[in-house]
Amino acid sequence: MNKKLPFTKDQIQQANQTCLIDLVQSCGYELESGGRKALHVKHSGGLYLFKDSNKYYHFSTDTRGGSIDFLMQFGSMDFKEAVAYLLGTQFLPQPASAVSRVRGQLQLPDKAPNYRQVAWYLIQVRGIEPEIVTRLMHEKKLYQQDKTSNCVFVGYSKSGAAKYCTLRGSRPERLFKRDQEYSYKSYPFHITGGNKKVYVCESPIDAMSRASLTKLNGQDWTTNHYISLGCLSDQTLERFLSSHEITEIVFCLDNDKYAIYHDGSPAPNWGQVAAFSFAQKYAALGYETSVETPHCKDVNEDLQALRLIREKARQITGSVESSYER
Fold first, then answer.
1. Residue range(s) defining the domain that contains residue 268
2. Is the pTM of this model over 0.70?
3. Which letter, b or e, does each residue of 18-46 get, where b requires 16 or more Cβ atoms within 10 Å of its Cβ?
4. What is the CATH number of the domain that holds 293?
């Protein structure tokens, strides 16, 4: 027997009819024109609000919905919390994170008895250096989820408490990604370094890929810091800088040069727009900043392309050498 929801259909409809634009503004987000029928939410990874339908679309996560969905995705609420909030909403000026109110405790997914699937996927499919995978597993920042075999990436507070957790599928034929409920995006997935330089990437796999590229180029990958934003907001970077002595920031965000809207028209290069905006912002704050634009779509695709080039070169060299031995 299905458990009855604590709200009627009319109440749910009423909640979802809450003006999405007013709701988003009340949460502290800045809006700008996004076209004739839309508003763009600044520093949001391509979040657009549509005036006529009272709906949103988020390019970075390819998600959409109404007011209830917005609170579930961006306010870390479950369905019942979102509906209850909207039915009793008082639009007060407050920071974006305030919609989370008192949040539940982050529960990390169960760990698998071994991490073989995740290790195979990251090393063989994604091209990550084994040494980096091993170290992150040892530091409990990476493990394999039980039953599903998803990659689990964890971000910790300064005191060592798990605050952020994101999941990625480990099977190439099945794409899957999701943040664990009650995750705080402002706590980064972090590969710790020893100097004052940090590489800022969009995803944990990109951060691991940038460290791998450093090693493949003959440099010591352990000297630098690498963090992932988990989106295109710099709240993660702000928290990281508040607790680490950093002088140089390198932005390695996605190269979305082929991004398009659903109607097929060209969309902005979201990753690079954010990268150059952040570079300018933090340069004004006294940091040395630069932008590394991926040649492919993202850092991991660059890593895979480099490995493919080197493998082909090795095969050609081996073929030439064997011909001389005949």
1. 116-310
2. yes
3. bebbebbbbbebeeeebeeebbbbebbbb
4. 3.40.1360.10
